[in-house]
Amino acid sequence: MLAPFSNYPVNEAFERLMAEERAARAARADQPRTGLLQRILDAVSGLRPVASRT
Fold it and tell me: CA distances (Å), 53 to each of 7, 31, 37, in order?
C-alpha cells in the first residue's frame, strides 16, 4: 500500500520550511517600511546605520 504524499519526510520538511518563511514574511510586514531616499540620507549623514533599519 502506498503512503500518502504528505507523509514523506521531504514534504514535511518543505511544509515546515514554508511555514517558517510565511512567519518571517509576516514579521517583516509588521515593520515600518523606510523609503530608499530616507535610507540613503541616513547612511550618508551617519546618524543611523543602514543595517539597523532593516
Answer: 41, 10, 13
Q: What is the DSSP string of 1-54?
A: -PPPGGGSHHHHHHHHHHHHHHHHHHHHHHSPP--HHHHHHHHHHTSS-GGGG-
Per-residue pLDDT tens digits for 10-54: 788 888 999 999 999 888 887 777 788 888 887 888 765 555 545
Q: What single-letter amino acid sits at 4?
A: P
Q: What is the pTM of this model?
A: 0.46
Contacts of 23 (CB under 8 A, 6+ apart): none
Taking phi over 0 as left and psi of -120 to 50 as alpha, with beta for the rest, 25 belongs to: alpha
